[in-house]
Design goal:
With 542 residues, the chain is of the alpha+beta class. The protein has helices at residues 6-13, 24-27, 110-119, 130-142, 158-165, 170-173, 182-185, 189-195, 220-225, 234-243, 260-271, 292-306, 320-324, 340-346, 380-393, 400-407, 426-429, 434-437, 455-468, 483-504, 513-540, and strands at 91-98, 122-129, 149-151, 205-208, 216-219, 278-281, 284-287, 330-332, 352-354, 369-375, 414-417, 421-424. It has a five-stranded mixed sheet, sandwiched between helices. A three-stranded antiparallel sheet has the order 8-5-9.
């Protein structure tokens, strides 16, 4: 894993891409009028055949559970994954969002120029700041002149738009057809499933993310000093938070932003045995908030607030700086926190890790996907060209193609360093940051666990993932379509977020969770549960 962002986890635990990762009680599996987008009763296109890429040998392997391979150092010898000509010299237009400063224009951008050369096309990229994405994508999709490649996140009336305006990619990607694009064939089947079908067909190229259940990032040094066991009981965990609080310091905090309290409550919910935001009971879907275990989670969460363990500004500000400077010892931060940037800022003052769930609970898996890109309708030859572009951009870690798209040009954007493998130049950290170009939002490789120059931190992350992933629970709704969820997601999310915040911070009693569940079911939650169950049954019967 080269770079993890907080939005990735909210995707995992399901806020939309522009809102910032978790199960679909947060995410909204689709937006707009579903129309004939459901898969129940349809002839389902086969998922693309999975053909793993044989690249540089990792220090520790991945496996079928979704465990990512571990690389403690950057591979000395890179493989080549694309051998044939990609482009035909034509313009290729694309629109997607960025979470940073948009890049320099192509005339001033050496990486952009080098990618054009490698791809054999003229990339014309519309890169939209996340804050402007919703308005911009609505305007673009409402117009008649669509780009070739479109990030599908948060498109109004998304499924209706895709069915009417976008290319059905099934004949090019379904089954063994994907073998014409080896790097797309290297995308695990589960990632395609997380993307889901629309009307029984494959319409997109998924931009996958690890299944690894992140969650509560901790100051491991402080937790160890406070005597909190690696596998703590509820009481040991609460006592540890209390011991870490006082004199201007706090045991924990939330993630500032939308649905902050629910984000923090996920750790407690998983620890108390809630199986996910949606739970399958027999052939039914039940929201996780409707379980008795969720009440127990809120009670524990509330105790942590009452004993003064939460930073008092948790709901109103991002406490990342407070975690880095040691004021806060634990933060629901996800993979954006477990990064080279955070470790560098900490400067060796303490080690970071993820907390195992307390008690006998199990973490929730991430949603496993950031989103997916779609193509406007075009001739078969044009679609094949666009797929070759995506195939290049999905080149695996340890390949020459990955190095170019993720790190840039050697001698311009990075130099090779014996200690960390890749050392960014001043250009790559100031005016021409490779991640700012954002082509990884068009297509991306499966992520390894790799933190440049931090082999011990990478090993801890691998060990955490290996320990928690086999017993973690996936969100069964990811990749499914529900008209009721699509229509009511905003209001349903608000009911959950506002209600849990009020209960967790003492403004409503825990017993009011029953009222929240009733309200949730009454404005579309119950209908969504029925629709998810129907779609799930169809998917399992393929």
């Amino acid at each position: 894993m080269t770079i993890f962002h907080r939005r990735t986890l909210l995707k995992a635990v399901g806020v939309s891409a522009t809102a910032v990762a978790a199960p679909s009680l947060l995410s909204g599996c689709a937006t707009g009028d579903v129309g004939d987008a459901g898969n129940a009763g349809k002839d389902l296109a086969a998922w693309p055949t999975y053909v793993p890429f044989a690249g540089p040998t990792p220090d520790a392997p991945g496996d079928a559970t979704g465990l990512q391979p571990l690389y403690k150092s950057y591979p000395a010898q890179l493989a080549q994954s694309v051998h044939d000509k990609v482009g035909d010299g034509s313009d290729v237009t694309a629109v997607y969002l960025t979470y940073g400063t948009p890049p320099s224009p192509v005339e001033q951008n050496k990486l952009w120029q080098e990618l054009n050369k490698a791809l054999g096309v003229n990339l014309k990229l519309t890169i939209v700041p996340a804050a402007d994405w919703a308005a911009k994508i609505a305007t673009i999709t409402a117009g008649g002149d669509l780009p070739d490649i479109i990030m599908s996140n948060d498109i109004p009336r998304k499924n209706e738009f895709i069915l009417s305006q976008c290319a059905d990619l099934s004949e090019f990607l379904s089954g063994d057809a994907v073998k014409d694009y080896p790097n797309l064939a290297n995308i695990p089947t589960v990632t395609w499933q997380k993307m889901g079908r629309i009307g029984g067909r494959i319409y997109g190229v998924p931009v996958g993310r690890p299944l690894s259940p992140g969650g509560l990032l901790i100051n491991k040094t402080a937790f160890d000093a406070a005597g909190v066991p690696r596998q703590a009981s509820r009481e040991q965990f609460l006592n540890g938070l209390k011991a870490l609080s006082g004199n201007g310091k706090y045991g924990t905090s939330t993630s500032q932003g939308e649905l902050t309290a629910y984000g923090q409550a996920l750790y407690y919910a998983a620890s108390e045995g809630v199986k996910g935001a949606w739970v399958r009971q027999g052939d039914k879907f039940v929201p996780g908030i409707a379980t008795e275990q969720f009440k127990a989670a809120l009670e524990t969460y509330r105790k942590a607030v009452e004993q003064g363990s939460f930073h008092p500004d948790s709901l109103s500000k991002d406490t990342a700086a407070d975690f880095i400077n040691g004021t806060v010892a634990a933060k629901f931060w996800g993979f954006g926190g477990y990064s080279l940037d955070t470790i560098t800022k900490i400067g060796g003052r303490f080690e970071i890790d993820y907390a195992l769930p307390y008690g006998t609970g199990a973490n929730w898996q991430s949603g496993g996907i950031f989103g997916f890109t779609v193509f406007k309708k075009a001739s078969a030859d044009r679609i094949k060209l666009l797929l070759r572009v995506c195939d290049y951009l999905a080149a695996p870690f340890g390949t020459k193609e990955y190095e170019l798209s993720h790190y840039g040009v050697e001698g311009v954007h990075f130099t090779r360093d014996a200690a960390i493998g890749i050392k960014p130049t001043d250009l790559a950290t100031t005016t021409e940051v490779p991640s700012a170009l954002g082509v990884r939002y068009i297509a991306d490789a499966p992520w390894p666990i790799f933190i440049p120059g931090q082999p011990e931190a990478a090993q801890r992350l691998y060990d955490f993932t290996k320990a928690t992933l086999p017993t973690s629970t996936p969100d069964p709704s990811v990749g499914l379509i529900s008209a009721s969820w699509s229509k009511n997601a905003g209001n349903l999310n608000k009911i959950i977020g506002d209600g849990i915040t009020a209960i967790g911070w003492g403004r409503r009693p825990v017993s009011d969770l029953d009222v929240i569940v009733k309200d949730f079911n009454g404005i579309g939650g119950a209908a969504a549960a029925e629709e998810f169950a129907k779609e799930y049954s169809a998917a399992q019967g393929e």
